[in-house]
Every structure is written in structure tokens, then in C-alpha cells.
């Protein structure tokens, strides 16, 4: 493809993304529904001469890799340009979309990149499933309602539907006319093996690069009991502890113990240590399975006697008998290894049905969290009315984010902000451990140091394991706030973190905070510190640096000097003064949160806003690229997706501690 040809292809557009629906599939005549696909998101851009470019969601050229798709639609366009948004998928022999096969194909392509470009894979054909049309001829369709874009898309002839086709969509009214509901469509998606359903507002425009409330995804997630058969030592930030578990279950036909995959997320720091200690006592020289697992899955594996039973969350059980998209939920002391049966092997296994309705309001259930059994209540109580996000979903979020959250809480007294009646109801701050707290909860008694301190003491909770985190979530403690210091043997240690809280005043947003953050970044680096950034989950953001100091007052003094310096340099956009009258049109650099009596919202904490937004670590590239509030606004489900891709972006804080200038 020449540069001239490429110039005639429609310019790439950052794709619009779906937001998680918080477990509540939307319903009503304003909605349409599509299957959620398990492939590679791709744009198909076609020039007037038929030149076709396939581009990934990150603007990587896919054209050579999926050469069979190039030019397929050109005969139907009559010399018009077009831009289709969709997904490249592979089908298995059972007629279901098979991401595992796509991954295998991808690996083969990468290995052959040094050979001829456009190499074919006739044994693993791909198909482009289009679900949106962004341009047709000279007409830009971004502002056109979804319903009209879909109509135009479906009127395009598909010369070869085996290679390019349109994703099925159905409106609420069409379902109702057939005496069916969106839940029926979801059940059909489950039985057909799709990842889930995406609900789309029929009136919505296409908003590039954003996750608006007009596209809402409802994934299908399953749980599975597993036998722990081995473990891998951790790497990088988890060096010296457990990195992941190798899992088994019994074949439902033969009863043999078979390998079904691994799990590396969902562990707290304490859980990793406890599991490692237990597993080291069970070590054996060889694997316990009836057949040897793939070698690439068992690098650095340490095998154990298959005596421990646990539970995982997963999204898919593959054709090869593997669980995918896994997260650890905890050990099951009430189960014996012989009771653990593998999911039915695909292709004949029907996908799991939609999750059952939540238990009735006021209902109570007992769950295993780590090494503790906890009683949870009112799981279907809606705490975020705008999203229908329930207390059960809050507990699920904190359980799944525990692995990256708990290291940032370890040793730090926690202050809760509780919302027992949801974010629209009354809230209160809670420092003292409430009556009825479990006896096993770790606490620390410290002198009261707040502005209303009267010389008394406060018994703070210490959340250093999954049970403590689940207990707090069950109390509707949506927000978790911690100081910049830790405790050891009941005594407060010197600060180990420096924080700058960037608070946008009236007329400014997080976009303005990002510009100030970039300036602070350069100053801090010049002073020998390593800054990290996170959103506040509300309107602003915070910067952190790991520090060494023996003076509790030094961080505030240093932070105040920098804040005042930036305010002097650009008084029109920055203020270091707390008075609200000084904040209009400016970003307030709040240096005072370094005071030992102050706390800051913890990384990965939910916030008590209209939506279940999270205080989210971000990269400096994201800070530099932020041009809209939505670019750095993340909900609970989006944060879980980010962790799967990025890990903990603040993991390096302890390792980069440096003397405070």
C-alpha cells in the first residue's frame, strides 16, 4: 500500500468504549442490544478505490495480519469511502467465537513476521463483525443517532458474509413484540457462548475515545471451585512471595485430576504470604495431574499435594479445558478435593446462564473470605442509584481489587466514610472501630490528633487482609482514607510518603490539574524524587512520592514551598491558599495533607459520588494526554480492567523512596 493510497483512506478515530453496567442490564424502549464479542476490536477503513486498512483500538495496523479481510467490502461501496467499527473474530468447530484460537493464530503470525508479509492462515479463517458505521462516502456519521447508523450499516451489501458481516442487534420493542425481554436476550447470549450483551441508546451519537452512559456492557462471569496443585514464585513487586496458583479439577467423565489453568490476581499481600506458607509444607517433586500440563504454563512451577480447595471467578472455560480471566476468591475449607469437578468441556458445554437475582433485601449469607467466614447482608441494596450499583457489587469490587489495594493500606490506620443508605443518603466519618467489629480485626490505639482532639485515644482499624476489607465493605464503608505514615508495634512511624492534592476550583477541572501536575513532576524529579499520579475519584488528583525523613513536619514544609513557588510563577492558574475565595479559575495545591493529622483517599478506594468512581493510579502519558474530564474518570469495573492490563501503577512507591530535599 503506497502512502498516496493510505491518504485516501478515512483517518483513524479513537474508538468509543462501553462502560460496565454495574450488573444491571438496562431495559426500556430507548435501548437496543448487541452481543458482546470476544475478539480483537478493529476499525475497517476503506478508501474510494477500495484500499482497505484494518486498525486496532490502539491505532496499530492489522492489515497484513488479517490480509484476507482486505477489499472484501469494496464491491458493495460503489467507489464510496467507508469506516466500519467492529471486531475481528475466529470461530471454533462448534460454531462459537473462540478467542483461544485467535490467540493461537496471533502467536503464529508473530513468529512468522520475519517471513513474507500477509502470510495466510487458511486453516484459521477470520471474520470481521461490524457493529457501527462512522463514515459513508463524504458523510461523517459521528453525530448521527446510533439507530440511523445501524440502519445504514445493515443496508450495505455483504459480498462475502463468511469474511465480513454485521453483528446482530435487536431493540427493546422488537423483543417485546416477540413477548421476550432483555433478560431473554442475555440468556440466549449465554447459551450461545457470547461474552455478554452490550446495551446501546438508540438516540446516542458516536463519541470517540470516551465511555459514556449510552453504551453499557453486561459481561457474563462465573465461579468455580478448584484444587490448588502448584504455585509460582512472584516476580517484580511480588518477588519473595507467591505470584500465582496452578489449578486442577476432576474430569466429570473419568474422575481424573486434570490441569485447568492458573490464577494470579485477587490475592491480598497477607493472603499471598499465608498461602505460600501452607503450600511450602505440601511440596512434592512432580505434578499431580493425570497428564502433564503444557510446558509454557509450568515454567518456575512448584508442585504441591492436591489437598487445598479454593474458589475463583472466571469468564470463560476454553475448548482446551482452561479457565480464562480468573481472580482468586479464597480457600474453601468446607470442600474436599474429591468434590471439585471441572466445568463441562466445550464445545458441547452450554455457557452459564445469567447470574441469579440477588437475595432479597434484608437477607443474609455466609461467605468465605480468605481464612475467615463472614456474614453479609442486604447485598442487593442499591448504594449508587444512578448506576444501580449494589452493596454486593461494592463487596465484589473490593474483593477483586484487594491484591493491589491492600499494600497501600498495610500498617496505615484507616478512616472510613460510610454510606449505609447509599450515596444520596446521610454519610459519616468513622475513625474508631465500631461496636460489633470482629475480634480478629487488627486495630491500633493512638492519641487523638485531630482538630477536636481532647487528649483521648482512638482505636483505628488496620485493614491488611481480605477479610478485613470485605467486613468494611459490608458496612458500606465506600471510602477508605489513610495518612502518609504507618504504625509499627503500636507506635507511629515517620512519614514515608509525600502527597500533593490538586483540587480544581470553580471554572477548572482535572484537565487543568494535569497541567499543574506535569509542572510539579518536573520539579520533584529535579529534586531527586519519583512522582506517581492518581485521580482522586472525584474532581481532582494527587501526586505521591516515596520519601525518607525523620521529621514529621518536614513533608508539609517542603510541599508548601513548592506550592507557593508554582503559585508565584503562575498566579492566574495556581493557588497555594486554602481560602475558597482564592480558588476560582485556579487549581489549589493542597500541601496540608502531609500534616500527620490529615488523611488522603487511598489508591483504588471508591468514592461517594453519583457513580461508583475510583481513585485510580494513572500513567504520566495519560496525564499529558488528558483533554477531557472523561479521559481520567474511571468506574469500579474499568479499574479492574486496567489492573488486568497494567497491574498496580503505584507498585514502585516503596522502592523509589528517597531523602526529602
UniProtKB/TrEMBL annotation:
GN (gene name): ligD
Taxonomic source organism: Amycolatopsis vastitatis
Residues of the ATP-dependent DNA ligase family profile domain: 119-251
Swiss-Prot/TrEMBL cofactor(s): Mn(2+)
GO terms under biological process: DNA recombination; DNA repair
Tagged with keyword Nuclease: yes
Composition skew (Pro residues), residue ranges: 350-359
EC number: 6.5.1.1
Cross-referenced CDD domains: Adenylation_DNA_ligase_LigD_LigC, MtLigD_Pol_like, OBF_DNA_ligase_LigD
GO molecular function annotations of the record: ATP binding; DNA binding; DNA ligase (ATP) activity; DNA-directed DNA polymerase activity; exonuclease activity; metal ion binding
Keywords for the protein's UniProt record, in alphabetical order: ATP-binding, DNA damage, DNA recombination, DNA repair, DNA-binding, DNA-directed DNA polymerase, Exonuclease, Hydrolase, Ligase, Manganese, Metal-binding, Multifunctional enzyme, Nuclease, Nucleotide-binding, Nucleotidyltransferase, Transferase
Domain of life, per lineage: Bacteria
Stored NCBIfam families: ligD_pol (TIGR02778), NHEJ_ligase_lig (TIGR02779), NHEJ_ligase_prk (TIGR02776)
UniProt cross-references to InterPro entries, sorted A to Z: DNA_ligase_ATP-dep_C, DNA_ligase_ATP-dep_cent, LigD_ligase_dom, LigD_pol_dom, MtLigD_Pol-like, NA-bd_OB-fold, NHEJ_ligase_prk, NHEJ_LigD
Transmembrane annotation, as ranges: none
Protein's name according to its UniProt entry: DNA ligase (ATP)
Catalysed reaction, written as an equation: ATP + (deoxyribonucleotide)n-3'-hydroxyl + 5'-phospho-(deoxyribonucleotide)m = (deoxyribonucleotide)n+m + AMP + diphosphate
Lineage: Bacteria, Bacillati, Actinomycetota, Actinomycetes, Pseudonocardiales
Stretch list, region Disordered: 345-364
Pfam families per record: DNA_ligase_A_C, DNA_ligase_A_M, LigD_Prim-Pol
Similarity comment: family membership: In the N-terminal section; belongs to the LigD polymerase family. In the C-terminal section; belongs to the ATP-dependent DNA ligase family.
